Prior knowledge:
Jelly Rolls, 7-stranded mixed sheet, 17 helices
Amino acid sequence: xxxxxxxxxxxxxxxxxxxxxxxxxxxxxxxxxxxxxxxxxxxxxxxxxxxxxxxxxxxxxxxxxxxxxxxxxxxxxxxxxxxxxxxxxxxxxxxxxxxxxxxxxxxxxxxxxxxxxxxxxxxxxxxxxxxxxxxxxxxxxxxxxxxxxxxxxxxxxxxxxxxxxxxxxxxxxxxxxxxxxxxxxxxxxxxxxxxxxxxxxxxxxxxxxxxxxxxxxxxxxxxxxxxxxxxxxxxxxxxxxxxxxxxxxxxxxxxxxxxxxxxxxxxxxxxxxxxxxxxxxxxxxxxxxxxxxxxxxxxxxxxxxxxxxxxxxxxxxxxxxxxxxxxxxxxxxxxxxxxxxxxxxxxxxxxxxxxxxxxxxxxxxxxxxxxxxxxxxxxxxxxxxxxxxxxxxxxxxxxxxxxxxxxxxxxxxxxxxxxxxxxxxxxxxxxxxxxxxxxxxxxxxxxxxxxxxxxxxxxxxxxxxxxxxxxxxxxxxxxxxxxxxxxxxxxxxxxxxxxxxxxxxxxxxxxxxxxxxxxxxxxxxxxxxxxxxxxxxxxxxxxxxxxxxxxxxxxxxxxxxxxxxxxxxxxxxxxxxxxxx
Length: 581
């Protein structure tokens, strides 16, 4: 591996929106503020929470702040665990990875008798009462003070791996992280998100407990100021990095990661459902789920037509797949739109593409089936590889194409694919992010030392066998089309496939380039050049600096914007994704 390629290391791992306002640090300062706001002898305090907070730390802090108060924990008002398991089983399912999107509401979790008795105790209180936990605002909608402890999904996943938290109303803490994630994705998070939406304009203070023992608190006005500022300027969410069985070494250098780690395979750098959003306040970084922005300002962020089409779902995902110095990804396929809707209850599927940020000599991409293969024989050979441990001859059935820096491969749903070793892929896709049907994992084990789940059954129902060698070469490989050019810049259409709803454009430039958001969100990555500055032609937002390989989001509300190299005359390139009309 040529180390000279890794000269750049200015990648910002903690991007934040600057906000003014008070911030309370630590339980002592937070407690003093809460005590001041609940001075009445019969004050009613609601402390609502998202999934994954450490209950022991939070309830201990509340007990220290108001030791005389009665604390009512909402989970004590839930139905029994056996009832809740039976209620959620149809959506969580027995599958290791996949469930069905639940229509349940948090109100369904409460035992009517227990809820009625708790509300009577609250109504007849003679002293202070604190209602704590999931749905606290539902139990006591007329509180004197409402707090909310939020949590980003990436931190929840860390806590799954540590087996330090459990599901909503169900103790599944000792289950595999994959099963815990599945319950969260299909059941717990949708019902908690819907409840949180009902609280946004009732919360007085937001609390960040992502770092145990070091909580931060901001007032509702500061929180909303952060949302408002972010949705009217270019911004980045907080990327997170993860090892993989096939992981590589490129991101360690370019993104300045821990060199002692064995590898990093993933970087999720634009997945608002998973990523955090940071507010920089008086020298502190206040962390919250980026999805709050989507829920609170969907039209300003997505644009009116995208808001109508996708609801409160951010439809574009950018992530990195690093196999430089690593191995092949699993041979895989994503479900068709019809299959994901009927089988899992989702509105749209994961169409995608591979853009090559970098590649070593000999790097490759596996894409589509070879001409004239026998589908039944291929599925039979996949089953034999899975059941008997016989290696699957991937190159007998699947095309293997050489991969070079700045290549772009288009992968609509139903297309067999994977990145080979030696590639640094910027994956541009629609957002559903767990629906990968693995068919062959090259005979290796996962990071936990166990085989990773294989989904040949699901895959066999969605493979598009017409995506053969000729079709792939004609419509899926480097389909670059010149669009426009000017002094010091040119624009190319690079995809995506006609079956996909995302359009991608690449701009090469040495001079400033004018872009138009056109009432739709846009996601970009700087794929060539050290750094660029994003600016408003009418000074609607402060200049925004982007470094090599950083992904950034342009909200629909931004309208026109320009991008120019920081170093005058430097050669730069961006790849841009947006929703087709």
